[in-house]
Structures are given as structure tokens and as C-alpha cells.
Amino acid sequence: MTIQEPLSITDIVDGLKHKPGALLPILHAIQEQFGFIPESAVGIIAKSLKQTKAEIDGVISFYHHFRTSQPGNHTIELCRAEACQSLGSRSLEAHAKTKLGIDFHHTTSDRKFSLDAVYCLGNCANGPSVRINDDIHGRTTVDKFDRLLEEYSAKSVSA
Ligand code: FES
């Protein structure tokens, strides 16, 4: 078994730039590799695809999926889709933002948590739904959310 070296931004761009509609696959691949789109990537992509940096920045900011800063140890995604809204996700969202002291697409100052929005986690009947890293949690009340924060926070310390 061979160990694969991580790809550089230039490797990723060079490997995908000839595909039709290359920008989105490039952005996805960079975020997959680094966890976010570093500022330095924008110039490399723009030059390679013969677009302006403003155009690349525009696409990055249009899609909420893309992050422009390093994520925290744990990524929390709150479902904002309709079924979860009808089960109270709006008030959970307000609580989460206050509790963490951040808005969507930001990371807490201790770098433990990043907060993002998501639109359906396939757990609609059990909303409000939250995904923390790869774990989906249903029926997330404010109290349950706080317990989850403590639980994952403890994982950060022991990791
Ligand atoms: S609407 Fe939230 S999980 Fe489907």
C-alpha cells in the first residue's frame, strides 16, 4: 500500500482545469483537501482559468458550502430546511449563534466549533436536525444542543 502525498492547490487546479465548468470541481477539491478555500488559492485559480479574482471570490461567496477560513475542531451544521423549521429550528439557530458567539460560516475564537447552515440532512421527521462532524442528531432541543457542545468540547480536549 502506498501513502498518498496531499495534493497542492496547483496540483488540484492543474488536474481539473480542463474539465468543462472546472471552477466548482476545483473549489470542492480544494475544500476537501484543506477544509477551506485559502486566500492564496483564489489567485492561482483565477490565473489558471483566465478569470478575475473578483469572479472567483463571487462564486465562493455565492455558495454557502465554501469556507474561506480554517474550520474548528468540530463542524456544526444546523438544518434550515422547511421540515426542521416547522419543528423549531429557527429558535435553535438563534440559541446556537448566541451560545457559540458566532454567526454561520464562522469559527469560535477557541477554534473548537464552526457553525454552518445545511438544507436537509435526510432526518426530517426527527427535526430539528443537526450534524456535528459526521454524526446526525435529531430532536435537538436547546438543552440537547448544549449537552452536545459539552460532549464534543470534551472530545477536543482529549483528542
Ligand atoms: S428538513 Fe431538516 S433534516 Fe430534512
TrEMBL record:
Reported cofactor(s): [2Fe-2S] cluster
MF term (GO), any: 2 iron, 2 sulfur cluster binding
InterPro entries associated with the record: NADP_DH_HndA-like, NuoE-like, NuoE_N, Thioredoxin-like_sf
Classification via Pfam families: 2Fe-2S_thioredx
Record keywords, A-Z: 2Fe-2S, Iron, Iron-sulfur, Metal-binding
Classification via SUPFAM superfamilies: Thioredoxin-like
Keyword Metal-binding: yes
CDD domains in UniProt: TRX_Fd_NuoE_FDH_gamma (cd03081)
Family: Belongs to the complex I 24 kDa subunit family.
Protein name in UniProt: NADH-quinone oxidoreductase subunit E
